[in-house]
């Protein structure tokens, strides 16, 4: 399926400080709340259709900024998140940056948020819903998102590790929706995500160990 790329909002500066790439399903409405929460020195690119990897890569190709920020449509940015990101980019321009994660919804989702924090900070394995951010030239050097049906975010992070790219926390959180957990069941969805992560991690860990 062809990916439709839309420059939903141009930046007030040229070139933009950040290119914010938002992947969307073919029939998904634009995330107006997210767009409105972004400052005017950031361009917003909506990439619609195809697999998520295809959409993210197409959006990155259309980006004009030196820094790419991949944000899911259901992400909400708490106060201070953008300032923390700017500081992190200045502090570690060659890193793959990620946010900690807060899920909306029932209290049990706090366990998933804590798990994401542990996985990301202890093992350096953030997921795509943690609003990954990196230099555009570095993204191209890593080969972009691998063309897989799912788990492209995990594989990009592994590519970064193999290339010696530091994977660092921004030092702030973003909020994401727990709707999939509510729709499919908390235990089932958590187990599926864990199984996918372990299945993709095993060959990457072996490759990393062989390369040491």
Automatic annotation (TrEMBL):
Q: Which GO terms describe its cellular component?
A: plasma membrane
Q: Does the keyword Glycosyltransferase apply?
A: yes
Localization terms from the record: Cell membrane
Return one GO MF term.
glycosyltransferase activity
Q: Which UniProt keywords apply?
A: Cell membrane, Glycosyltransferase, Membrane, Transferase
Domain of life, source organism: Bacteria
Mind telling me what this protein is named?
A: Glycosyl transferase family 2
Q: Which organism is it from?
A: Phreatobacter cathodiphilus
